[in-house]
Amino acid sequence: MKVGLFIPCYINQLYPQVAIATLELLEKLNVDVYYPSTQTCCGQPLGNSGYEDDSKGACQLFVENFKEYDYIVGPSGSCIYHVKKHFDILEQTEDVIKVRNNAYELCEFIVKILGKTDLGAKFPYKVGLHKSCHGLRGLNLGSCSEKMDEHFSTEEELLNAVEGLELMSLNRKDECCGFGGTFSVFEEAISVKMGKDRIQDHLDSGVEVITGADHSCLMHMEGLINRDNKPLKVMHIAEILNSSI
Asked: Which parts of the chain sit beneath pLDDT 70?
């Protein structure tokens, strides 16, 4: 299988270590992975702000960049969700449908397509998992607290297999961090309060490192953590799954 690696714009610009960890992880799993060098934003920021028509160019370029691959894999639940659910604004050609159907968030791809959970990682720390709204409720990466479904979590499966890692139980396991893209700009006060509530839950639960599959949420909380000098480290799940310390 040929896999196209999609690296969201904010990860490319601000968190290149997450992109590198994602690539190295896929290569360790013997995936035939490629990085289309002309890729850009998937169009999510414009779509989230109510300018879907203006995002069509970015969406179509995404399709052109990734249409030749069997799977498209990215370390961002929200971006992958946008591709799968919001590329309906494009004419539904064979290429568009193929890209939408074959786009996968990293953890989902590893567990559901590759059938792997133990990746040989080592990470001797107490970890708190932030389940992003797009990944949890959009991509169905885990069960939701508002439903009485049997518990499951793709991310937990992977983290529980990491040697030395202690996955801490939170009081509110799937509460929103308040980022929400442009919501954090237009509703700053509410966004900050929600983020601080999530951080406090991790602190109360004895967490040393917060992780998750959406670095946009982690970026939001990391900014609040650094501003308030809280004793927490933030790492994308790809970095932990690629760790051998």
From this structure: none
